[in-house]
Amino acid sequence: xxxxxxxxxxxxxAETGRHMFQSRARLFxxxxxxxxxxxxxxxxxxxxxxxxxxxxVVIDEQDRHIGSLRILxxxxxxxxxxHFAHLSGGGAIRSPLIWEVTRFCVESSDWIEESSxxxxxxxxxxxxxxxAEYAGVKQFLATFDRRMLTIYKRCGWxxxxxxxxxxxxxxxxxxxxxxxxxxxxxxxxxxxxxxKIVEQEEMLQRLFAA
Amino acid sequence: xxxxxxxAIDVIERCKTTQGLQEAIEAICDIYEVSHATYHAxxxxxxxxxxxxxxxxxxxxxxxxxxxxxxxLIDPVVAASFKGFIPIDWRALDFSGRPCEEFLGEAREFSIxxxxxxxPIRGMSGEHALFSINSDSHPQSWNKFxxxxxxxxxxxxxYFHQRVREIEIGGGETCFQELSPREKDVIYWLSRGKTFxxxxxxxxxxKRTVRAHSESIRHKLGAVNTAHAVAxxxxxxxxxxx
Lengths: 210, 242
Hints:
The complex is a heterodimer of chains A (210) and B (242). Chain A is 36% helix and 23% strand. Chain A has helices at residues 14-31, 79-83, 114-135, 146-155, 181-191, 200-208; strands spanning 2-6, 54-59, 65-73, 98-106, 139-144, 160-165, 172-178. The longest helix of chain B has 30 residues, at 139-168.
């Protein structure tokens, strides 16, 4: 199941949020060894979580976190502009029609089946894609780790690589995706669904609620 | 459609004063044939230090009534748009409850309909403002309108906001964001008549990446399309020889 909420709505999505931040800690600090801050509750958060991003989360029937990603507009403060501008030609790419995705994270613990992980990646991408279509956004810019590259390929929505830095597990890639109708068609085919993954009206009602 | 955006950007660009901005917002309504448009800065350094800043085409009596009765406190559009960044379709808002229904009833008397969209603006320093449009068209044509013009308004909203900042804070000087070295390369080759494909080949990047840079240039210079961006870059003296 897909959940979408803004940073300012974390209070009403406290448990989902906590699981997401903990899962991020396990992946980015634990498995990838990135230099990210983890608090005493085992939650990984950075300065961009304070800029009211939009979170897209996949949870299972037991409300467990399977995967998540974080969206910020590139017109405002964002990680790519602040830390990876050198990978995109020496300056920030900024447009209301380009969004940034960071902290794309899928669970990889023992309790979870490989097929659910695979599905979660597709669902997250499709949800982000549908949201971008609603907003008239044309492209996604994202930083991600090597493992995600494989996942994107498998999902059939591959980015153009703008650049990378670092080595081994710590290598960070900057990629660019187009939002276009065929992407939705492809992702839905892979998920074997015919309708939108997010019920738009309900999603918007939730996002626009105080 | 392009033509509409070109006219709207031109109108915004020409204004020099607060009154000019007010006329520009009225002109945008005429150009896109919507009933009303509103610009509302909620958190912009220097501009909103002593309270919100707003420009609107709503009837003055309605604006006074809205402020007097503190409708801002119950208006779901306000509640939804103070945060977040995705465009807000008013039809997804909850107008239930007696105070809200009364508010809606009064708004209707001033020819304001539920067919509206609010475009949140988020700037580099985290400032926040809103640009809203309201239409009296039928649901189907409103959907079609949004489908066709959403992206235009995402850009226009940010561009209008930029012009407000220039006029109200910066003394009216055009103050565009610096292009990155790569963006300067892209605009240079585009100004030499190269296609996106050519530019991609010359710079060893993909066509999609050229599109992203071009989109970013368009936003930074406030341009409608590539040709317009090139013209602006030349007039700003950004394109010389490499």
